[in-house]
Every structure is written in structure tokens, then in C-alpha cells.
Amino acid sequence: MAIDRADLYTRLGVKPEEVTVVRPEPSILTRLYIFEIIKGMGITMRHMLYNMFHQGQMPTLQFPELRRTLPPRFRGRHRLMKKEDGTPRCVACMMCPTACPADCIHIEAADSPDPRVEKIPVRFEIDLMRCIFCGYCVEACPKDAIRMDTGLFTDMAATRREDFVLTMDKMLSE
Amino acid sequence: MDLDSFWGVQLGRVVLMWLLPLLLLPLMIWFERKASAFMQDRTGPNRAAIAGVRLGGIIHTMADVLKLLSKEDIRPVNVNGFYFALAPLIAIVVSQLLFVVVPFGDAIDVGGQTISLQALHLDIGILYPLAVGSVYVYSIVLAGWASNNKYGILGGLRAAAQVVSYEVALGLSIVGALMVYGTTDLNEMVRYQGGLLFGFLPRWGIFLQPIGALLFLVAAFAETNRTPFDLPERDAELVAGFHTEYSAMRFASFFMAEYIHIIVASGLVVTLFFGGWQIPWLSTETLRANAGIVLDVMLGGLVVVGFGSAALAMRWSPSLMRQFQDLRRHEGKVLATLFGGLGALGLLGLGLVHTQVGVLPDWAASALAALAQFSAFTAKTMLFAFGFIWVRWTLPSFRYDQLMRLGWKNMMPVALVNVALTGLVLLAVGGR
Q1: Is B129 in contact with B78 (CB distance < 8 Å)?
Q2: Do residues B260 and B423 make contact, with C-beta atoms less than 8 angstroms apart?
Q3: Nearest CA among B316, B296, B299, B305 for reference residue B340
Q4: Residue A95: CB partners within 8 Å, gap ≥ 6?
């Protein structure tokens, strides 16, 4: 936050001309800059030598080979859950497309063959180009049918727009 | 036959001094990438590999060259075609013209004849790189102007103003040194620096002319357009300055010219103020008289460096390579074999020299001395070239008015005072 100087003076109850700002005067050695430059170059050299001989301690992660362990609540790519008999848990209630702020979930519902269940989805697609990974769909689902716990967040590259659409089969298989 | 003016010898010297900066170039780019990475706690280039061997990132430079060679050469519509093409040519040609005057060793004696180790022997000596080097700025100005780009023209303008300002300090900073040496011939200067000062210090220019050396070093940074004087290509405000519109090999020409310029500037600093090819405390006569020991030290150095690097490669490799499941796992073993072979070669050489060769002939002794001096010159030059990179990754760059103030109001007066002081001291001591 920037300080409004005039406001500060009024609040402190002093006049601007009564205030003297004491700034440390750099010594002549500092103002020559040569010694300061040598000091600074010492710091970079120290870092370089340390890192040369402690390469194992480098914080860089060799990414495709090594991966960071993700926190359990990390929101990655979506997956759909199944019932014990292998059919999708989803009942096509349309809660998730309603909650979705990016409008990226598209569900087509059909009558369920099971008399205890009213509807099932025949098409359940998520457009990853639109998805913002907010997790509202997971929050909204009354059946715990959609989750974002695959831990996948980089394997979504594609060369065509159509390939970015997650199909129901793909989400069910993960 | 006069060996010194034999066309083969002359061509050999010129080609050597032309190739030396070109061969050191990949090393410089590697320094720039890897050293800067380590200074900033990053890993740096470590992916490009030939059969799993990455050589700590040197292979990355080769990949880079391939990329630049095969890239599309884009020429924007509204550029001035002739000057647009001419500018990178000037840059690359001028930067390669400079190194030929720098002497890289004492003369070799072969059968009563002497072969001077200076590709282009000019009486005007130091004035040649100053004169030719100042043509370099034309390439930057032309590049900026011809590319019809606001950033380009700003970069070119800045380069012109900066080089004009610092050329003055550069020229004045060596006047003191010229007064002390009494010659403009670079080889004579280096010979003069071979003596001792007060009986223990090597008589290097840095001890005779400390202020001049510092000013020359700073002005050299400005001449090569390196941080902290990188205003012509300041990426924070000018995109890429004068080479904004350049791509592929045209860009690479500027890139290479910059690094060759750094090597040349380092070579000149070394020649003028750090003894050139002189090895401190060891004169050419001493080296020639003890050529056997010189050879032993060289081969012994090869043995130590070879086996030492092999041991390091073996020690580092398991911890660093375990994470890779491909060919890179074997990199440590390959490197250790290569370096170990180098060490074994040195060992073999040592054995051969001690069993087969008795007393070295005179020409071999003088050639060995010259080789030792050439190595010393290259090592010193690379040390300073590394210094250019080291400074770039340490210091922030100047604001434009600060740059001008430093050049005109600080460096020029100090250089003039240095000239006056040197004259007074020389008068008091009684000439040189």
C-alpha cells in the first residue's frame, strides 16, 4: 500500500518542514562501486561452485522421469465412478452442468432399463478446452459419480479441438 | 628458404587465429547457459544427448546450431533489403578480423631461423583492433535502421551513442600503457611484460597501470555491448533491440559476432595488461632450458585431469543418472572411459618420452615453450571471457543517463588524470 505523505503528516500532527528524513550516506568505498561489485560477484561464484558440486541437491525435478507426489485433494482430470455391477453411478440429474461455470459438461439422458433408477446418461462429455478445473461438478453431484482424483494434469495435449473432449467411455475407464 | 615468410606458415598462423575464437565459441555459449544456471540455482541445459552422452550440456549447443541452420530465414516486407543483409555480414566479418594481430607465443627457433607466432605483424599493433573494432558498430546501426522497426532503430541509436562515448575512454585508457611500454607493437608489449617488478611481481600491465587496466576492462564491456552496458539489445524494454527482426542464421551471425567479440576483447585485455602469452616468473629462456620438465608437466597434467575427471564422472553418475531409464544411465561410464583414455594417453606419452627420447633437440624445446605459452594465453583469455559472463549474471544494467554520465563524466576524466600521472611518474623515474 502506497503511503500518502500529506495524509501521514496530518495524522502524525507535524508539519512537513519539521520532518527530517535521515538516509544513511553511503561511504566513499561503497560509492566507488568496485568493492560492491566484487562482493556481488563473490555471491554468484559461491552459488555456482556450490551447485557444481552438489548437483543432487538441486531443487529442479527431472519432470517426465520423476514426478512430484500430489496432495490428495489435487483437482486433476475427471473420471466417472461405477456401481458394483459396472454401470455408471451417474443418474443424469443435470446438477453438474448446472453448477459448471464454464459450461463445459454436456449430458444426454435416456430412460433407465433398471426400474429403481429413473434416468441414465447415454452421452457424458467434458470439453477440456473450456473446463477451468474448479471442482464445482464434484461438489454438486448427489451420487458421488464424478471425481477429479486421477492426478493427471499434463496428459491432455492434443492437436485437434475434438480430441480435447473427454468421452464417457474414457472417464469411466479411469 | 625463409621459413617465417613461407606461405604455408603464414596461412597456418592466420587460420589458427581465425579458428581459435570459432572453436572457443561453443564453449562460451555453454558457459553462458550452464554457469548462469548454476549461479541462479537452476540446472541448465541437460537434455540434448548423443547416444545418452550429454557432456554437461555442451551437446545442447550443437542442437542449437542445427536448429538455427534449418530455421526459416524471415525477411519482413518493409525492410531495406541490401542493408538488412549487409548488417550481419559486417558483424561476423569484422569480429573475425580482429584476433589476427594478437600474439600467441614467443618466436620458435628452427635451425637458426625464427618463426614469429603472430599472424599479422603490424607496427601500428594495438591501433588496428581499435580501428577495425569500431566498424562493428556500423553493423548494429545498419541492422536497427534497415529493419524498419521502432525497437530496432532505438537499439541502433543507443549503440551508436554508447560506442562513440566509450571509444573515447577506451582509447585514452591505453595511452598510459603505451607510454610505459613505449611501443604500439603488441608482441613488444608482451615481451616487456616478461620482466619482474621489484624483483618478485611479474611486470604486467595491471601492476604498472592499474587504473588504465580497470578503465580498459570497463570500456571493453561497453564496446562488446554486454551487461551492464547492454542497452542496444535490452530485452526488458526494446524486445531484442537491433536484432528484433532477424531470425535463423542472420540472427546467429549477430549472436556469434557478440561471443567472438568477447573472446577478442578478453585477448586484448590479456595482451595489454595481463602479460599476454607470458607465464608469470617463467621466461622463454627458462622454459626452453627446462623443456623436458615442461613436457613432463604437460603430460602429467593430462594424466591428472584425465583420471580426475574419470573419477568425478564415476562418482557423480550413479546419483544423478539413476532417475533415467534410457541410455543416459550409461553416461557416467562412457565419460569415465573417455577421460580415462585421455589420462592413459598422457601416461603412455610420459613413458615414451622417458624411455625413448634422450635430450630434446633445440627446435622441439622452443616449440614446447611456445606451446606452453599458447596454452597460458588461451587459459588467460578464457578466464576473462568467463569474467564477461560472470559479470552479466551478477550486475544489473545501467539506465541510459547513468551510462552516459559514467562514460563522459567519470571515465574520461579519470583516464586523462591517469595519462598525466603516468607522464609525471615516467619523468620522475627517467623514461621507461
Answers
A1: no
A2: no
A3: B305
A4: A140, A141, A142
> Measured between beta carbons, which residues in chain B are less than 8 angstroms from residue A43?
394
CA distance A70 to chain B (A): 19
Residue B378 grid cell:
588461451
Mean pLDDT of all residues belonging to chain B: 84
Element (H, E) at B335: helix B331-356
**Number of CB atoms found within 10 A of residue A41's CB:** 17
**How far apart (Å, rounded) are the C-alpha atoms in residues A171 and A165?**
11
CA separation for the pair A111, A91 (Å, rounded)? 10
Per-residue pLDDT at A95:
92
The arithmetic mean of pLDDT across residues B140-160, rounded, is 87
Closest CA to B244 of B257, B256, B229, B234: B234
Query: What is the distance between the alpha carbons of residues A138 and A96, in angstroms, rounded to a whole number?
Result: 7
Half-sphere exposure of B311 (CA within 13 A, CB side): 7
Q: Which of A52-61, A92-101, B7-16, B421-430 has the highest mean pLDDT?
A: A92-101
By a Cβ cutoff of 8 Å, what residues of chain B touch chain A? 35, 38-43, 214, 316, 319-320, 323-325, 390-391, 393-395
Cβ distance of B43 and A60 shorter than 8 Å: yes
Helix axes B412-429, B150-181, angle to 10 degrees: 10
Phi, psi of B381 (to 5 degrees): -60, -45
Say what the pTM is: 0.81
Q: Name the DSSP class of B175.
A: H
Please write the tens of the pLDDT for every residue from B264-319.
Answer: 899 999 998 888 888 888 777 777 777 778 888 888 888 888 888 888 877 766 66
For an interface test with B, the pick among A58, A61, A66, A68 (most B C-beta atoms closer than 10 Å) comes out as A58
Q: Which residues pair with B50 in a beta bridge?
A: B53
The secondary element (H helix, E strand) that includes residue B59 is: helix B58-70
Q: How far is B259 from chain A (nearest CA, A)?
A: 21
**pLDDT tens digits for range A9-57:** 788 788 777 778 888 888 888 777 888 888 999 999 999 998 887 777 7
On the 0-12 / 13-18 / 19+ scale of CB atoms within 10 A, B65 is: middle
